[in-house]
Write a structure and sequence with these properties.
Blueprint: E1 12-13, E2 19-21, E3 24-25, H1 26-33, E4 37-41, H2 42-59, E5 64-69, H3 76-84, E6 88-91, H4 94-103, E7 110-112, H5 119-128, E8 132-135, H6 138-151, E9 155-162, E10 184-185, H7 190-200, E11 204-210, H8 221-241, E12 247-249, H9 267-285, E13 291-294, H10 298-301, E14 305-317, E15 321-326, H11 335-339, E16 346-347, E17 357-362, E18 371-378, E19 386-389, E20 410-415, E21 418-423, H12 428-432, H13 446-449
Parallel strand pairs: 4-20, 5-6, 5-13, 6-7, 7-8, 8-9, 9-10, 9-11, 11-12, 12-13, 15-17
Antiparallel strand pairs: 1-2, 2-3, 4-14, 14-15, 14-19, 16-19, 17-18, 20-21
Helix pairs in contact: 2-9, 3-4, 5-6, 8-9
Length: 455
């Protein structure tokens, strides 16, 4: 795989040696919006959505839906695009739910995931008329049942199952094992108990079953195994409790290549494998085909996103390493420190220059582990050059923090030669808005900030 293969579909190197994306010069964009800067290519976003929906329509003979996993990255502008492309949406928190509400996203196309949803979050979902609530554990099932009963409402639910299937990915990204905080284990009988409870409740409608094995997975076989496990459970519950499996979701987690050495992961390959597993599995067990809901996140947004940084200091350790530091790092992309993730990069203002040295790209934050890329071949850099990292659209921004009181970067959307600011850069003033001085310093504020501690 070539390095440019990892960039958005509209990326090209112009005669001046600059990297252009979406008809825009990235060097000019950095000058206009500042760095660190995150850029999303709208054409790549829409193409990936359409690739998923077309592949599912072609491979699956019954009703199918593609629901984007919002935890990979969300914004109001992106939600508008998702709605236009006809995708559903997965949310995992009250904040994501609120953003979807503010965007006017169709509530019937929203699924609410999470292993410890609060009563307030569940109540908000019920009051909004959310399409599906994915119940994760006994406590949540009983809480949702009570909340729905109090409202005289009917909650459409999926049960999240834990099939105890391993996948080849980082341990922190594995979610389908028996030893996991997520889901009702099949092996312990918890899943059967939960389904019986849901079927018996007049306020819960168990429409379907869900699982999620993990993230950044490149092999289809674990997904096939998961589908078989879900269908075995559904067939047993159909025989014992007349359960009708109307909807099935094997989750998401399909991988993307982050650097030249990673495997290519065609979207159609995964969609076809999962669709075939459901089709054949239902035929073998005498089950009617359910609606099939796929929940990709990373594989839609990661290829569309770029992170742009300005090069600063340089440190040569003879015979050991050369460090090139940039004006971002683990505050906007903690994935290398958290998961050992490895990226590639280009020097955007020298995109046609040949690599001439091996350097380590370091961030600016006060941690030795703040390294974005270790040992990458780049052309010689000088302060002020623009470093651009592809495959930066997923999880970088959602995991971003104010570490060292950093301000989170601006985000732009590029399309057909124009750039649109969709998330403004945080300011120091934004950081101060959460701060409350002690009343002794500001007596006038004592009425609103002072609380009495009662033993």
């Amino acid at each position: 795989m070539e390095r440019m293969d990892l960039f958005p579909q509209t990326a090209r190197v112009e005669g001046d040696g600059h990297l252009w994306v979406g008809g825009c010069d990235t060097v000019s964009l950095a000058g206009q919006f500042g760095t660190p800067l995150y850029l999303f290519d709208e054409a790549t976003l829409r193409t990936n959505c359409q690739t998923y929906t077309a592949a599912l329509a072609e491979a699956y003979p019954a009703v199918g839906e593609v629901a984007y996993a919002g935890k990979a990255w969300l914004s109001l502008a992106w939600l508008d695009i998702l709605a236009e492309e006809g995708l559903g949406l997965d949310v995992v928190s009250g904040g994501e739910l609120y953003l979807a509400q503010q965007a006017g996203f169709p509530p019937d196309r929203v699924h609410f995931h999470g292993n410890n949803k609060s009563a307030e979050e569940l109540a908000s979902a019920l009051d909004w008329g959310l399409g599906r609530i994915v119940v994760d554990n006994h406590h949540e099932l009983e809480l949702l049942d009570a909340l729905a009963a109090r409202r005289g409402a009917q909650a459409n639910v999926w049960l999240r199952l834990s099939p105890d299937i391993d996948v080849h990915t980082h341990a922190y990204r594995k979610t389908g094992l028996l030893d996991s905080k997520f889901g009702f284990p099949l092996a312990t009988g918890d899943a059967a108990w939960a389904l019986r409870h849901a079927l018996a409740s007049p306020h819960l409608t168990p429409l379907g079953l869900h699982t999620h094995l993990g993230s950044l997975v490149y092999e289809v076989e674990p997904f096939v195994q998961a589908v078989r496990a879900i269908l075995d459970f559904a067939a047993t519950m159909a025989d014992q409790h007349a359960f009708a499996l109307r909807e099935l979701s094997p989750g998401g987690g399909w991988g993307v290549p982050y650097n030249e050495d990673d495997p290519v992961a065609p979207i159609k390959h995964w969609v076809r494998a999962v669709s075939l597993a459901v089709t054949e599995g239902c035929a073998q067990r005498g089950l009617p085909l359910p609606s099939l809901i796929l929940e990709p996140g990373r594989s839609i947004v990661a290829p569309a996103g770029l992170a742009l940084y300005t090069v600063g200091s340089r440190k040569l350790v003879p015979g050991v390493r050369t460090y090139v530091s940039v004006d971002g790092g683990m505050a906007d992309n903690i994935r290398p420190a958290l998961y050992g993730s490895r990226y590639t990069a280009l020097v955007a203002n020298k995109a046609d220059a040949e690599p001439a040295e091996v350097v380590t790209v370091a961030g600016k934050y006060c941690e030795s582990g703040d390294v974005l890329i270790k040992d990458i071949a780049l052309p010689p850099t000088t302060p002020g050059d623009l470093l651009v990292i592809p495959m930066a659209g997923a999880y970088n921004l959602p995991l971003a923090s104010n570490y060292n009181l950093a301000t989170r970067p601006a985000v732009i959307l590029v399309r057909e030669g124009s750039a649109h600011l969709i998330q403004r850069r945080e300011t120091f003033g934004d950081l101060m808005r959460r701060e409350v001085r002690l009343a002794a310093d500001h007596p006038a504020e004592s009425d609103s900030t002072e609380e009495t501690c009662v033993p």
